[in-house]
Specification:
198 residues; mainly alpha; two-stranded antiparallel ribbon; two-stranded antiparallel sheet; 9 helices; 6% strand; calcium
């Protein structure tokens, strides 16, 4: 890729607890990450900086919070069915990114120049409007999105993150719900989940 980018594996490693392993599980995008592929605008298997901002906001926000904000915005739009317009969805995602740990620190390169050149000159709303997620969920500007459709997608993303975290702790035997890792590897996973200091 021509711009700064990360693989799906890089993204997963940036959000899961450290595993103290020398070698990390590499994600085959075709095999596991159907939901993450929705965020990859050009389908090259890499997440660009703008895609990273949106996806990290989704992964770090509780589903109940997303649902609450979605419903409030749908009421503001006058929807009795609990749906959002394209504009309402862009507003939802803008709020989520601004409220996320990484997105809350983001500033346009026009406001805060970035010598690494990994930020973006566009306003946050424009970044989200041009994202793969908006393009795929709203093929036309007149479309509407139900909370059920959004929650289904977000649960898929959550499952993929959990699977990656599970698989990153050892060699996975089997597939799907019957996949397993050794007891020792599972113990390592549990240690990574313990909150420091209690």
């Amino acid at each position: 890729p021509g711009r700064w980018a990360m693989t799906y594996s890089d993204f997963m490693q940036s959000i899961i607890p450290f595993t103290f392993q020398e070698v990390y599980y590499e994600v085959d995008p075709k095999e596991h990450l159907r939901a993450l592929a929705l965020f990859d605008l050009d389908g090259d298997g890499f997440l660009q900086f703008d895609e990273f901002l949106i996806l990290s906001a989704i992964v770090t926000t509780k589903l109940s919070t997303i649902e609450e904000v979605f419903r409030r915005l749908s009421v503001d739009e006058g929807s009795k069915e609990g749906e959002l317009s394209r504009k309402g969805f862009i507003e939802l995602m803008t709020l989520l990114v601004k409220g996320s740990p990484r997105g809350g620190k983001w500033a346009s390169a026009g406001v805060l120049p970035d010598p690494r050149k990994v930020s973006d000159n566009r306003p946050l709303g424009s970044i989200i409007e041009g994202s793969a997620l908006v393009a795929r969920l709203f093929p036309t500007t007149e479309g509407r999105l139900s909370i059920e459709t959004l929650l289904t997608l977000l649960r898929e993303v959550e499952e993929e993150v959990l699977y990656y975290e599970f698989a990153s702790h050892g060699e996975v035997q089997g597939q799907g719900p019957t996949a397993s890792i050794s007891a020792r590897e599972f113990a390592g996973l549990l240690v990574g989940l313990v909150h420091p200091g209690g």
